[in-house]
Amino acid sequence: MVVKVYGPAYASPKRVLVCLIEKEVEFETVPVDLLKGEHKDPEYLKLQPFGTVPVTQDGDYTLYESRAIMRYYAEKYKSQGTDLLGKTVEERGLVENWLEVEAQSYNPPMFTLTVQIMLSSKLGLPRDENLIKESEEKLGKVLDIYEERLSKSKYLAGNFFSLADLSHLPFTQYLVDHMGKEYMIKSRKHVSAWWDDISSRPSWQKVLQLYAAPFKN
Amino acid sequence: MAIKVHGYAMSTCTARVLLCLSEKGLEYEVVPVDVANGAHKQQPYLSLNPFGQIPAFEDGDVKIFESRAISKYLARKYKDTGIDLLGSSSLTVSTIVDTWMEVESHQFNSPMQAIIRQMIVNPIFGIATDEKIIETELEKLGKVLDVYEERLSKCKYLGGDFYSLADLHHIPYLVYFMRTPKSSVITSRPHVSAWWNDISSRPATVKVAETMKV
């Protein structure tokens, strides 16, 4: 039985897709149209009661929350594909540290920028320029800290590529491709080198080929 | 002492780590950070947490920040000390714990943080409370707690039938929230209320909550 991943067109599910490719795990995808509100359908809510994407189904085992799903597959298939969790408890601790940074500090302003710049016109809402400016400033401060970190360490958790780096791929790709804010990455030498490295991984290139961004400007 | 937590008792994120340490029965030292004088935004603190946030953590040579990463590190490294807070016996079980830790992080934390800021933090700094924000965020929180009510009607704890980090991560904000006039949001939901009564009466919770004075 092959893993099913719901909502492949969107950013959060892409964390799961790139992780599965790195771990050499086969999968199928099931489209979910957020603009049509399919994520709030009673059938979908049975799978994911909070009404967000992604969900995965692996036979009877249903999971949601992209970072929990990534950790599960990275752990389950530890012995195949790329090691994404580190080799020791201490290395794992650093992977979790930077995955939390992504979730708590990087993702919120990034998500706001995505909604404001890429989605608001689709939702018939005006762009909030103040909020965009504020979010860009917050994100800039976070990227300054990344610049310092990545001047000492090739990847976020250490000298190995991990879930902590991978988790940044989908929304950062939106930033550079669809929001006209590539300079935020390019203007920071070590962040730029890190971005070039992780975004050119064959696994990520494959995801981009298969599943285009749903909301382009 | 090998385990050091840089922070202070009132801080919810510090409490998250202290709860984990207490549940595991691990020895530790709290290194106070002079937040009032901005010590957390300067060196040497920034070399422990470059975001200038509380807490930071050391275990011998290991240095980690982000309270939820610290608690997971402790639960893994000291798996065989005290209770198992991750459901480590099986990956499918520990993943359900992980899922509800993510739910706390991405669904529960944001409205709760906004409400606590308005009701408890702002008054300390003489900033006016915005009732509209409280109302909006309480509505969001209510919808999240409806899902929790359903979940807790089927199992005793969020991660399954055992207490875990999935429950523990909620405690710091709930300690403050239950002291506000809005606590009925919890008590009006029978399964959520029973769950709170259970986890708040654990000795480790009582011990840490006592130090959380505003």
TrEMBL record, chain A:
EC assignment: the record states 2.5.1.18
User: What InterPro entries does the record point to?
Assistant: Glutathione-S-Trfase_C-like (IPR010987), Glutathione-S-Trfase_C_sf (IPR036282), Glutathione_S-Trfase (IPR040079), Glutathione_S-Trfase_N (IPR004045), GST_C (IPR004046), GST_Phi_C (IPR034347), Thioredoxin-like_sf (IPR036249)
Domain (GST N-terminal): residue spans on this chain: 1-81
The kind of enzyme this is, by top-level EC class, is: transferase
One Pfam family of this chain: GST_N
- Where is this protein found? Cytoplasm, Cytosol
Q: Which GO terms describe its cellular component?
A: cytoplasm; cytosol
Annotated ranges, domain GST C-terminal:
88-215
One term of GO molecular function:
glutathione binding
Q: Which GO terms describe its biological process?
A: glutathione metabolic process; toxin catabolic process
Q: Identify the keywords attached in UniProt to this record, alphabetized.
A: Cytoplasm, Detoxification, Transferase
- Cross-referenced SUPFAM superfamilies, in alphabetical order? GST C-terminal domain-like, Thioredoxin-like
Q: Which reaction does it catalyse?
A: RX + glutathione = an S-substituted glutathione + a halide anion + H(+)
Superkingdom field: Eukaryota
Q: Does the keyword Transferase apply?
A: yes
The similarity annotation says:
Belongs to the GST superfamily. Phi family.
- Name-wise, this protein is glutathione transferase
Automatic annotation (TrEMBL), chain B:
The family annotation for this protein states:
Belongs to the GST superfamily. Phi family.
Biological process (GO) annotations? toxin catabolic process
Which superkingdom does the taxonomy of this entry point to?
Eukaryota
Protein source organism: Theobroma cacao (Cacao)
Q: Which UniProt keywords apply?
A: Cytoplasm, Detoxification, Transferase
The GST C-terminal domain extends over 90-214
Q: Describe the location of the GST N-terminal domain by residue ranges.
A: 1-82
Name of the protein: glutathione transferase
Which catalytic reaction applies to this protein?
Answer: RX + glutathione = an S-substituted glutathione + a halide anion + H(+)
Which molecular function GO terms apply here?
A: glutathione transferase activity
Where in the cell? Cytoplasm, Cytosol
User: Which Pfam family, giving just one, matches this sequence?
Assistant: GST_C
Spell out the InterPro entries in the cross-references.
Answer: Glutathione-S-Trfase_C-like (IPR010987), Glutathione-S-Trfase_C_sf (IPR036282), Glutathione_S-Trfase (IPR040079), Glutathione_S-Trfase_N (IPR004045), GST_C (IPR004046), GST_Phi_C (IPR034347), Thioredoxin-like_sf (IPR036249)
- This entry's Enzyme Commission designation comes to 2.5.1.18
Q: Name one GO cellular component term.
A: cytosol
